Amino acid sequence: xxxxxxxxxxxxxxxxxxxxxxxxxxxxxxxxxxxxxxxxxxxxxxxxxxxxxxxxxxxxxxxxxxxxxxxxxxxxxxxxxxxxxxxxxxxxxxxxxxxxxxxxxxxxxxxxxxxxxxxxxxxxxxxxxxxxxxxxxxxxxxxxxxxxxxxxxxxxxxxxxxxxxxxxxxxxxxxxxxxxxxxxxxxxxxxxxxxxxxxxxxxxxx
Length: 206
Known about the structure:
Strand content: under 5%
Structural class: mainly alpha
Largest sheet: none
Number of domains: 1
Distance between the termini: 12 Å
Helix content: over 70%
């Protein structure tokens, strides 16, 4: 798929998913366009990274697990824990991808910075997290911060993708555990799909 055509397709699908998520159109369209947008990101990523097959393989795994998480979170209550587990596994896959050819924690300052960010997020949200979810959320935040820090060791696109993933998940957690955000789907999904697209784009084109 040509990059321009892909970008237009992702933009159109994402706009419709966000509109459904924020109640601007019928909510059932979210079940169509949310998975479709992630599938389009996977389609963009699929032919890339031929020069680094191990990294490409694990990024594909991460994107596939993200799709599973997207589908699970279409049911915000019943699907939250399965979605959390799917995305935790996706971040583990990204960590493996970003350590193919790059030493783990090659930039210690990035790990220190993300440890502070993760601690601040947990400190702010901890009172609103139900007891049954505290251990899974703690594990997830640690894994997310590690992924974003290791992405910073890989290159500019991966680093920005990792950072935006943290922003997206922080917004989602704030919306769920602290206070409802106006136009929450816009902020959460827009940053999420840009993050995934940047991670995909961090692989070299064929």
